[in-house]
Amino acid sequence: MKQTLLRSLTLTGFATLTSALAAPPAIYVAYPNAVADVPFDHVLLEGSVSRGASLTLNGKAVNTAPDGLFIEWVPLQKGFNLLKLESTQGAEKASTELKVTSSSPAALPETPTVIVKDSVSPSSDALYYGASGQAVQISFQGATGGQASFKIGGKGPFPMLERKAENFPGTLDPETHKPLESALAGRYESSYLLQPFETLNKAEIVVSLLGKDGKTLSETAPGKVTVSAVNQPRVGIYTGTPNPGISGSTEVARNGAGRSYILFPRAGTKFTVTGEEGSSYQARIAPGQHVNIRKDKLRLLPLGAAAQKLYFTTLRTVRLPGATQIRFFLPDIAPYSLEQNAASSDQSLTLRLYGVESDVDYMVYANPDPLVKDIRWRQEQDGVFLAQIDLKPAQQWGYKVFYQDNTLVLELKDPPKISNTQPLKGHKIALDPGHGGEDNGAPGGLKTYEKDIVLAISKKLAEKLRAKGAEVVLTRDTDVEVALPERSSIADKARAEILVSIHANAVPDGVDPNTVGGAGGYFFQPQSRALAQSILESIAKTLPQIGNDGVHYQNLALTRPTQMPQVLIETAFMVNKSNLRTLMSPEGQDKFASAIAAGIEQFYLNAARQKSR
């Protein structure tokens, strides 16, 4: 009896163990989601299966590595695609399905005549306080090979030109001389230049297309245009409050609604508002130059407020401990732009004040001053005052711009004192492990997120920098989310000399993962380029198998601030199999940390040598 029971329990345990060993293989898909919409004709498919398991996609074998990793570039048909993944391990199988819709742009055929309704622009209403040379951009997508025109407020018809490669030579591929995908035929474009003293009252814009089949279709643009010669330009006061040297994405004036950054206004700055475009105001900062500012960031003054025109008479430089201030004494807060210039032999800053007229014939230089070589100024054009500040140091170490009452202050940081034998000793360095918390960053096919990899590298890097005598501050040392502007603020409050943000790269939809790999260095301010280059050169030397993705100039939240040299390092690509395995291995993480530490050290050494020349 006991023997029978024991045998029964043993068999039951063996059956349970056998069942566990023969469990169905797991399929993990890091990208795309189970239901996805991509505007391209391919999609990145990445993930992993159980070790030793095979995988098929819609019945075709997928190349899986011994650790189960797979990264594929999957072609899609336009519209709905069902991607069925099936994994087999012994006699066990597992499957999952992905529903991917490809909405890739494609030229419509010549017939039938079609206008894509949602493509007609302008898409939002515009109001201009008097016509002053603004151009209304009009476009739509339709059947190819047709004849298009538009009317505005009953005026017209005016012709529209189809976007073909022969009309836009810049859209040809320089190697194949064939049209790029972005130059698809069937896009019709034109513009209407508002004439002086012209008036329009919620004028509709109607586009028409005569197709190859002889039919004519028309559609009305969602946005209407109003031009009132009665309305005078208004005066608006900017209400945003970005920190000195830090520019948040909403604290900005752009060169068009939703377009590139132009100015970083300070609270109290006055603008001459000349119109409205959707959710933004249009403001004139100089003759022929306008910017767009979000309506919720600008408070309009009552009608009759005078447009700002300031007369500027006085500037001077003042020495403070560790910095030089250049003070521009203005009668009111004015819009400004500041640009770093980095020629091979000279460092300089160019400041423009808008709505300002020069009446300067006297200034005082601080003496001695280790930073400012010379300041020259002129009236660049009506309402634009320009000052060029030539600097003595070859390497800039950061600056802030702020108003004290009506005085615009440009504060330049002194270079640190650097030892040739212990270049990092005593220097404070900020490290920023990217992402964190609910922000996972790029997904990894082997179930590890970017946020975890870069935190591990950053901690190792901090140890190596401290071993070289540096003081290190981390923007996060646990799995927590930190807002992008706060990361730069942490470094600034700690009085760090440089900030290095650590990331691992991915690709956007539409990019073949087989074409990418390697480390990349990102900078925006010229003062930061040497740091990005030094780190990238060190990674390329230490980890040549990773590849070199080059040095990138890009306006990013962690490269844009000015209070210190700031760079973003993409250590390697999460969608490159070899790169990913290096990123995930403790040995690879240690090598990345060593390489970045050596690159930072070399940057300091190079700066010390430049200073001694």
Describe the structure.
With about 625 residues, the chain is α+β, with helices and mostly antiparallel strands. It contains 6 helices and 41 strands. A hairpin with a 2-residue loop joins β11 (about 145-150) and β12. The longest helix has 27 residues, at about 585-610.
How many independent structural domains?
5
CATH class of the largest domain: Alpha Beta
Overall geometry comes to flat
At the third CATH level, what is the topology name of the largest domain?
Aminopeptidase
Question: From the helix content, strand content and strand pairing, which structural class follows?
Answer: alpha+beta
CATH architectural grouping of the largest domain: 3-Layer(aba) Sandwich
Helical stretch count?
6
Q: What kind of sheet is the major sheet?
A: 8 strands, mixed
Could you tell me the strand content as a percent range? Answer: 35-45%
Distance between the termini: 96 Å
